[in-house]
Structure formats: structure tokens, C-alpha cells
Design brief:
This protein is mainly α and about 80 residues long. The protein has two domains: about 10-40; about 45-75, no CATH class. Helix content is about 55%, strand content about 0%. It contains four helices and no strands. It has helices at about 10-25, 30-40, 55-60, 65-75. The longest helix has 14 residues, at about 10-25. The radius of gyration is 20 Å and the shape is elongated. The N and C termini lie far apart (about 50 Å).
Length: about 80
């Protein structure tokens, strides 16, 4: 199994990570592996807000979540 060393890891982030690992009953390395694996297994979901140049100006003043909710409810 590979070993990963991370340089210049922010102290505050390290403390949060260590606390979460403890709260979840995992070792620090197991928690890091879980978080990285989860992120890599689930690609980023794009929203209408991410669609630069594809009519974004139409959606500028629209509450996207409310719009989607209304659309789903109309079916």
C-alpha cells in the first residue's frame, strides 16, 4: 500500500481532521482515506450557476433551488 506525505498542511485543518477522525472512531489516516475516496468516487455535480456562457444571464436573478422545486412539483 502506498504512503502519502502532505507538506505545508494547515494546522487548523489538521486539528479539525484529527477531531473528526476521533469522533468517527477512526485513525487519522483512515479518515483521510475515507474523505479522499468519497470525494473521488463522486464527481462534482454542476448546477445552473456553473454554466458560464450557456445562458447564465437568464438565471442571474432566479432562485435556482426554488425553480427546481416548482418544476418537480408541477409533474
Amino acid at each position: 500500500m502506498a504512503t502519502l506525505n502532505v507538506k505545508n498542511f494547515p494546522d487548523a485543518l489538521y486539528r479539525k481532521l484529527k477531531r473528526r477522525a476521533k469522533d468517527e472512531g477512526r485513525s487519522l489516516s483512515a479518515e483521510v482515506t475515507r474523505i479522499v475516496g468519497r470525494d473521488l468516487d463522486h464527481p462534482k455535480r454542476y448546477t445552473v450557476d456553473d454554466l458560464v456562457g450557456l445562458g447564465a444571464e437568464i438565471w442571474k436573478d432566479v432562485d435556482i433551488e426554488e425553480y427546481i422545486r416548482r418544476e418537480r412539483d408541477s409533474w
